[in-house]
Design a protein that fits this description.
The structure is a single chain. By secondary structure, the chain is mainly α. The chain has a domain at about 5-205: ABC transporter involved in vitamin B12 uptake, BtuC (Orthogonal Bundle). It contains twelve helices and two strands. It has helices spanning about 5-25, 30-50, 60-80, 85-110, 115-120, 140-160, 160-170, 170-175, 180-220, 225-250, 255-275, 280-290, and strands spanning about 130-135, 135-140. Strands 1-2 form a two-stranded antiparallel ribbon. Helix 2 (about 30-50) runs parallel beside helix 4 (about 85-110). The radius of gyration is 20 Å and the shape is globular. InterPro entries: ABC_BtuC-like, ABC_TroCD. It is found in: Cell membrane. It is a multi-pass membrane protein. Keywords: Cell membrane, Membrane, Transmembrane, Transmembrane helix, Transport.
């Protein structure tokens, strides 16, 4: 594959995976959790580096996942203390992210680990760092991680589809049916963490948040059926990745930033023209109703 093809494929995997996870974040009214975890994984990465003094390896992934789970646990714990959930998210993610930034500034030294890289990512560097994969040959490490993350997320969504559906729409009913709501909550947060970590190094926190929230919000405007929403959200994520790449090449700007912009463009189109919730549809329907005898 060409250099550009690897970048587009990797970004499409980010869009597809984040699109699936994002639907449940939107339905559970936890969109800000995407922002929280995408920032707090920085703390896990920094601590893993300080413990090993190596910038690559499974320890970085483990550290980031632990940080994501810690974020979910602290948010849930504060919520049980009668602190509003969105306020809990804001308190936890700003505090943990600030600790990560301070550790980078004071303890990391000359290593290639900085806040700008964490926020924006370096998707143009993806094709240069490869790993040998059986039957597939040499594949970029980031692409391999994101492909694995996509398979894991898709497996859990398909395997526990009914449970995710019930716990997302009516947690009280799920609990009365004997479904372990709290366990599923932390499994879901683990999936969010895995997805965020897999995409974090390649595209940065800003694009992760954009891909987790905006495609799902766009899909929510087009359909009320969960299965269709999942497919549409994932498709919007892939479409945003492709459009964003070509926008960036035309105007010579940040690829990750352009992909995030593309998610916003798709949302605006959905907001205007979706058949049920779109502004244009709402204007046309009353006019059509007046004409009817």
């Amino acid at each position: 594959m060409t250099y550009s093809a690897w970048i587009i494929l990797t970004a499409c995997l980010v869009g597809a995976t984040c699109g699936l996870i994002g639907v449940f974040l939107i339905l559970r009214k936890m969109a800000m959790m995407a922002d929280a975890i995408s920032h707090t994984v920085l703390l896990g990465i920094v601590i893993a580096f300080l413990m090993t003094r190596e910038l690559s390896g499974p320890h970085m992934l483990i550290g980031a996942i632990i940080a994501g789970l810690l974020t979910a646990f602290l948010v849930q714990w504060l919520h049980t203390l009668d602190i509003e959930q969105h306020a809990s998210m804001g308190i936890v993610f700003t505090t943990l992210f600030a600790i990560g930034v301070i550790l980078i500034a004071t303890s990391v030294g000359n290593a290639h680990l900085d806040v700008k890289h964490a926020l924006m990512g370096e998707i143009t560097f993806i094709p240069w760092e490869t790993t040998a994969v059986p039957l597939l040959g040499n594949i970029p490490v980031a692409t391999t991680m994101l492909g694995l993350a996509f398979v894991i997320v898709l497996f859990f969504i398909l395997a526990f589809y009914k449970e995710w559906k019930i716990t997302s729409f009516d947690p009280a009913l799920a609990a009365s049916l004997g479904i372990p709501v709290l366990i599923l909550h932390y499994v879901f947060m683990s999936l969010v963490s895995v997805t965020t970590v897999a995409a974090f190094d390649a595209v940065g926190a800003i694009m992760v948040v954009a891909m987790l929230v905006t495609p799902a919000a766009s899909a929510y405007l087009w359909t009320d059926k969960l299965s269709v929403m999942l497919v549409m959200s994932s498709s919007f994520g892939v479409l945003s990745a492709i459009l964003g790449y070509y926008i960036a090449t035309v105007i010579d700007t940040s690829i990750s930033g352009s992909m995030a912009l593309a998610t916003g463009v798709i949302f605006i189109i959905s907001f205007l023209f979706s058949p049920k919730h779109g502004l244009v549809s709402k204007w046309v329907k009353p006019a059509t109703t007046d004409v009817m005898p």
